Amino acid sequence: MGGLFKDILGSSETLFKNDVALDYSFQPKLVPYREKEQKFIANCIKPLFQEKNGKNVFIFGQPGVGKTVACTKILKELEEETEEIIPIYINCWQRNTTYKIILEICELMGFKFVQNKKTEELFRWIKQNLNKKSVVFVFDEVDKLEDFDFLYMILEEIYRKTIILITNYKEWIIELDERIKSRLMPEITEFKPYNYDETKGILKQRLDSAFHANVFSDDAFELIAKKTFEMQDIRAGLYLVKEAGRIAEDKSSRKIIAEHAQQSISKIDEFSIKNPNELAADEQLILSLIKDNSGKKIGDCFRLYQENGGKLVYKSFQRKIDRLHKDKFIVVEKTAGGEEGNTTIIKNNSEKKLTEF
After folding, report:
1. In this predicted model, what pLDDT tens digit does every residue of 126-174 receive, in sequence order?
2. Residues 6 or more apart from 232 whose CB is under 8 A from it?
3. I need a labelling partner for 12 at 20 to 30 A (CA). Which of 34, 44, 267, 293 fits?
């Protein structure tokens, strides 16, 4: 095709080689810039190889800094390395109660006869089988948990294990039940945000896996790398890269240029990155109350929350409000002075979410 049409994609052509590489859950061969953290976690697991008890680990750091990817990578390597250590990964926003977690562990271990069985019966089976070997548990997004009985059960009754807890919130461990905390005694490690060069390196690695050679212009890549670093969330960057590719394809362009990157950036400014379904039950309750009572003061919102069966104390309620604000579900306006001194007004955020289109 020459002349006017040489830069237009044919109907069956695509710029993408493997767009799965832009999914956040995709596992690259190497997890770049997290070698130090992975080594730290591996050292906590090491005693299990000598049939001793491992150390437990509490991992925190803001979203999109590689916590999950680093841990699932370690589990995968364990699986390839030995059959004596059983790897178990559970995401707690999907499995947020002891019963759901116990069911999931049965599922992962291939135990199918779970109908009409009580939690205690199922755990007895798990215990008998896990105690023949060693086990590494990874519980991700632990701030979504509604109860902690399963942790107590594992700490008390599973002999050789390492428990890894992952959350975005450092303060979560402080609020943990004392009887669990004293048994857990975790090593604590923070995943710090990536610097600009690391951000570029990660995006480049994924981009090379996802697209055919030379279709992503340097200008477009620079714009997206800058925006990703500014947001300090690799997930946002992966979304931007994928979206720029889609925009270019919609325009039948053979190259992804700065204009396509700019359009994908203007989209992300309008959307927040989280899905409301990912919120814990408490957060969903607060959000629905704010939707119906937008513009009220924080104290009034807290009263409404209590009247609707909310169990959190005011301090924890405030913390949930901060999180919902940070994830762009709500708008928090602080006003100083006036008759009542400082006031905090809570409003529903009517912006759309990334997951809605």
Report:
1. 999 999 999 999 999 998 898 999 999 999 999 999 999 999 888 889 8
2. 62, 64, 65, 193, 194
3. 267
CB pairs under 8 A, 24+ apart, for 283-291?
Answer: 283/320, 283/323, 283/324, 285/309, 285/310, 286/310, 286/317, 286/320, 286/321, 286/324, 287/324, 287/329, 287/330, 290/324, 290/330, 290/346, 290/347, 290/348, 291/348
Phi, psi of 187 (to 5 degrees): -75, 145
Cβ density class 103-126: b for 16+ within 10 Å, e for less: bbbbeeeeeeeeeebebeebbebb
Name the pairing type of β-strands 161-167 and 57-60: parallel
Distance CA 174, CA 161 (A): 22
SS3 call for 108: helix
For the chain, which ranges sit under pLDDT 70? 1-12, 29, 269-278, 335-342, 350-357
- The position carrying tokens 């798990």 is 126
35 - beta bridge partners? none
Q: Quickly list DSSP for 213-276.
A: TT-B-HHHHHHHHHHHHHHT-HHHHHHHHHHHHHHHHHTTBSSB-HHHHHHHHHHHHHSBS--G
